[in-house]
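Tokens for chain A. Residues wanted.
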């Protein structure tokens, strides 16, 4: 028998043979049945979408915490450490808590495999561990981020949530979710449950029509923020962004040009929660938006030179990054930036390069630490259509070369971007360098 003292719960969850994503709910339903359905003892805000899910989750969780609730937050992937995927009131699950939850989930997962011949996937295990932990510590409410899609995602085993939130939808994971906005919207709208209010980004018409139809079919009231009620101030420096929503001023430390829009979507969800009896004051809403943190999303990690980490990984993310650079540096300044760039092969990296091209002074390509990564050499070939591009041996090498080039050529800054996997690897290296 394995010595529990030497059991590594993270290594177990990350066991290679069950890392592959396999959409479907049967394994998850069986697993949670064997755990006593912990999700039924929790209340949820369920969040799907292509872009902005993590930021919206962070905003909603932060506001609820500021209102005095015990708030669980489940997100993926992680940027700093594995444990950040499961948080309560902003604190990561501890090693002891993780081991305790895994001790409950592990035999149940083995029983699922014995019964059907198919072991739960890594993400399913992670979600089950999160439900088990949130039940154990008595969360008042859980902000639950969808992993992939919605309809067949492991998180979609929950019953009626307090609100279903659908962030901005774009073309991503088209091999699994469909190759049109309408098809992808249908998968995302799979989280909509009968009678639960729906909060949606004002989507493009093809996607919006699907969400409206699903909400109507399931008897759900639909709330869509009018961004005409949003007024965003010019970004003054690399520390704080101010905006006004429905005539009330807010501040956020999330600097991307898109963040006030994400905050407005989150505040719309907060208003829906108020309508369902959750006590959330205007002061809590302001404090929650101001205190929200979400690393790796247009995050300034150093100022000498200006160094930004961004996890955007599709054309919408690249467009937002380019707009954010223009907002921070001006049109002329954003054209004076060099990049450490790494992408995944299954992303639309050619369009990403085109969207970022106006910002390129030079690009150092790198291979992210992910089995689905595009090689630095292949990315260099594509990047050369837009700018001078050079292969780097590693993430550390790409950062070093980019920073040196920016210093030597008096550039406006350095951007490390293209993938959340790259952001996760680069961020600690950059923070360590910034501390010197």
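Reply:
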């Amino acid at each position: 028998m394995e010595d529990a003292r030497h059991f590594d719960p993270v290594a177990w969850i990350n066991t290679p043979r069950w890392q592959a994503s396999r959409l479907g709910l049967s394994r998850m339903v069986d697993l949670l049945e064997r755990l006593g359905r912990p999700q039924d003892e929790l209340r949820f805000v369920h969040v799907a979408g292509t872009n902005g899910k993590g930021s919206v989750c962070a905003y909603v969780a932060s506001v609820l915490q500021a209102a005095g609730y015990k708030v669980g937050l489940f997100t993926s992937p992680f940027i700093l450490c594995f444990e950040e995927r499961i948080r309560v009131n902003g604190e990561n699950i501890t090693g002891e808590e993780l081991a305790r939850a895994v001790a409950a989930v592990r035999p149940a997962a083995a029983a699922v495999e014995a019964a059907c011949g198919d072991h739960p996937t890594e993400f399913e295990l992670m979600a089950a561990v999160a439900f088990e932990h949130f039940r154990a510590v008595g969360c008042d409410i859980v902000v639950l981020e969808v992993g992939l899609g919605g309809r067949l995602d492991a998180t979609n085993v929950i019953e009626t949530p307090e609100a279903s939130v659908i962030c901005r939808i774009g073309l991503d994971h088209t091999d699994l979710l469909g190759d049109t906005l309408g098809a992808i919207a249908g998968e995302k709208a799979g989280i909509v449950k009968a009678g639960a209010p729906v909060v949606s980004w004002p989507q493009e018409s093809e996607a919006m029509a699907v969400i409206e139809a699903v909400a109507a079919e399931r008897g759900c009231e639909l709330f869509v923020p009018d961004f005409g009620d949003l007024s965003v101030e010019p970004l003054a420096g690399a520390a704080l962004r101010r905006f006004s929503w429905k005539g009330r001023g807010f501040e956020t430390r999330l600097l991307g040009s898109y963040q006030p829009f994400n905050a407005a979507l989150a505040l719309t969800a907060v208003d829906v929660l108020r309508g369902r009896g959750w006590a959330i004051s205007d002061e809590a809403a302001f404090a929650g938006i101001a205190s929200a943190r979400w690393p790796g999303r247009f995050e300034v990690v150093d100022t000498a030179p200006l160094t930004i980490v961004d996890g955007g990984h599709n054309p919408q993310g690249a467009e937002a990054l380019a707009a954010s650079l223009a907002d921070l540096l001006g049109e002329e300044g954003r054209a004076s930036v060099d990049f450490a760039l790494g992408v995944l092969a299954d992303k639309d990296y050619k369009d990403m390069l085109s969207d970022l091209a106006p910002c390129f002074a030079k690009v150092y390509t790198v291979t992210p630490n992910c089995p689905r990564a595009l090689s630095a050499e292949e990315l260099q070939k594509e990047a050369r259509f837009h700018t001078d591009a050079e292969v780097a041996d590693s993430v550390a090498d790409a950062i070093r070369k980019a920073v040196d080039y920016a210093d030597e050529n008096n550039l406006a800054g350095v951007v490390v971007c293209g993938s959340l996997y790259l952001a996760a690897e680069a961020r600690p290296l950059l923070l360590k360098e910034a501390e010197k």
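The longest strand covers residues 360-365. The mean pLDDT is 92.
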